[in-house]
Design a protein that fits this description.
three-stranded antiparallel β-sheet, alpha+beta, 63% helix, elongated, Arc Repressor Mutant, subunit A
C-alpha cells in the first residue's frame, strides 16, 4: 500500500482508537499491527503530529503493577477533527466503490 495513503488511514485509526479510550503508544502500535503491518516510528510520527495540532494530549499514567507510561488522550478539537475525517473517508470510499463498479 502507498505510504502516504497508509499514513492517512493510520491517522484515522489512531483517532478512532483514542476516541474510545486513552492509550499509550506501544499499545496503539500493537493494536494496529494485529491487522496491518506498520513501522512503530509511523505511529509515533502521527501521534506527534496530532499533539502539535492539539488533536490529542499527553498525560503520565501509572498502573498499580506496572511502569509509568505516557498516555495519549483525544481533545475536543481532536474529536471534531475525527468526525470530519470520518465523513471525508466515507465520501471517498463511496466514490471509489462507484469507480470500481464502472464498466469502462
Amino acid at each position: 500500500m502507498d505510504v502516504q495513503l497508509k499514513k492517512g488511514v493510520i491517522e484515522l485509526v489512531i483517532l478512532k482508537m483514542l476516541n474510545k479510550q486513552d492509550m499509550y503508544g506501544y499499545e496503539i502500535n500493537n493494536q494496529i499491527n494485529t491487522r496491518l503491518e506498520i513501522n512503530k516510528s509511523t505511529v509515533y510520527a502521527i501521534l506527534q503530529k496530532l499533539i502539535i495540532n492539539n488533536y490529542c494530549e499527553i498525560f503520565i499514567g501509572e498502573l498499580s503493577d506496572g511502569p509509568i507510561r505516557k498516555y495519549y488522550r483525544l481533545t475536543e478539537k481532536g474529536r471534531a477533527y475525527l468526525e470530519n475525517l470520518e465523513g471525508e473517508w466515507k465520501k471517498f470510499m463511496h466514490k471509489v466503490q462507484d469507480l470500481l463498479k464502472c464498466d469502462y
